[in-house]
Amino acid sequence: MTCLHRLIVLFFALLAISPLACAQQAKPGEEEIYDPLHAQEAVEIGKFYMKRGDVDAAIDRFQEAIRLNPKFALPRLLLGEAYEKKGEKAEAVKYYEEYLKILPKAPDAKKVRKKKEKLKRQLEQDQAGAKAGSDKALEEPPGAFEKRKPRFLAAELG
To answer: Considering only CA atoms, which of 70, 74, 42 is closest in space to residue 57?
Structure first.
């Protein structure tokens, strides 16, 4: 057998084995997908939904883009903006942090860090305000409800 024949046989043997090797890398029950083209399309569709005001549909598309391309930073930034728009500050912070983890030296990194820190401060204030409100309700003196109950309720209760 000539050297060329051996190379051809080796090539086809490797070609036959390669799908088995790839199949073993994926975890059982999980299909490993990497599709950057469709990930980019999902981002574009998500941006379209954001412009139309359909934030939930946009979120679905941005999450799909991450599933198709796990290292894609842009959908994380856009998810942060979408959750911020919905008022879900904790989720927005989470996705801003993921974006900065993937692209720490992005051109807009400073701006994103400022947004993230502002949202974190707001979350802390919201949590402090909620705690103070619940503490105040617990500290109400006896009979305080009687003084401030609505007139219609006072008439019914006598």
So the answer is: 42
Q: Which amino acid is residue 78, in one-letter code? A: L
pTM for this entry:
0.66
Answer whether 78's CB lies under 8 Å from 62's CB.
yes
Please compute, for residue 6, the number of CA atoms within 13 A of its CA located in the half-sphere on the CB side. 3
Nearest 5°: CA angle at 111, between 107 and 113? 105
DSSP conformation class of 70:
T
Q: What is the pLDDT of residues 10-44, one digit of tens each?
A: 455 444 444 433 443 445 555 668 999 999 999 99
In the chain, what is the greatest distance between 2 CA atoms, to the nearest angstrom? 109
> Between helices 89-102 and 109-138, what is the axis angle to 10°?
150
Angle, vertex CA 74, rays to CA 78 and CA 33, nearest 5: 110
For 39-43, the CB contacts below 8 A with 24+ separation are 39/64, 39/65, 39/66, 39/68, 39/69, 39/72, 39/75, 40/65, 40/69, 42/68, 42/75, 43/72, 43/74, 43/75, 43/78
